[in-house]
Amino acid sequence: MSAFTENAFLGGQLILRQPAKGYRAGVDPVLLAASVPAKDGQSVLELGCGVGTALFCLARRVPDLTLSAIEVQQGYADLARQNAALNGIEADIVTGDLSDMPASLRDRQFDHVIANPPYFDRAASTRAQDSGREVAMGEDTPLDDWVDVAARRLKPKGFASFIHRAERLPGLLAAFSGRLGSVQVTPLQARVSRDAGLVLIRARKGGRSDFRLSAPVVMHEGTHHESDADSYTARIRAVLRNGAALEIT
């Protein structure tokens, strides 16, 4: 992938190379990383890491982690490796398909598995013209497989953390059923007057707690968009600019 840009994340704490055209990371993987309850010394696997945005944002907040990822697109995996080196982060980035997990990852278990799966069911949406963006955004591997792989790669009591569109929540909950317990869903609202557009979903291998629907996290101040100025709430600004944790209780 020859044409790329370098973009600052977390207020400049992280510099990431991204393709000039194609899928480019927004705030979603940053929010996912901020929500992961990782602790020093633990291990993390990201399914479908792209250029490494979520994994490396998490590494900036919790520096003593063992990091691994799988990415099906060679060009994006190469950029993830470059980004690890660029930011002085040690990570094992494997090129491969999560539905046919390479042995180097299949033989291991992790404290955390994180994922930002493709959002759009192509049976009900239009394919992107750019092939890289299409693979990143258009669902090819079913959600059920993403959850199954996450559950298999987790250690007992390990956490799976996903971010996805709110309308895909029923399918995700069905996939979690019987595989992971202690499911907690946190809606993400653009504004107080809006329906939730995204959800954060956390579950635990062997968890037995009741299902929890957390209070929504509101992204922007005010009831509607008024200008192009930064309107993030203080809570979200701390995540995006300072790399703070997105505490979910």
Automatic annotation (TrEMBL):
Keywords: Methyltransferase, S-adenosyl-L-methionine, Transferase. The keyword S-adenosyl-L-methionine applies. This is tRNA1(Val) A37 N6-methylase TrmN6. Residues 31-124 form the Methyltransferase small domain. CDD domains: AdoMet_MTases. GO terms for molecular function: N-methyltransferase activity; nucleic acid binding; S-adenosylmethionine-dependent methyltransferase activity. It comes from Shimia haliotis. Pfam families: MTS. Transmembrane segments: none annotated. One of its GO terms (biological process) is methylation. InterPro entries: DNA_methylase_N6_adenine_CS, SAM-dependent_MTases_sf, Small_mtfrase_dom, tRNA_Adenine-N(6)_MTase.
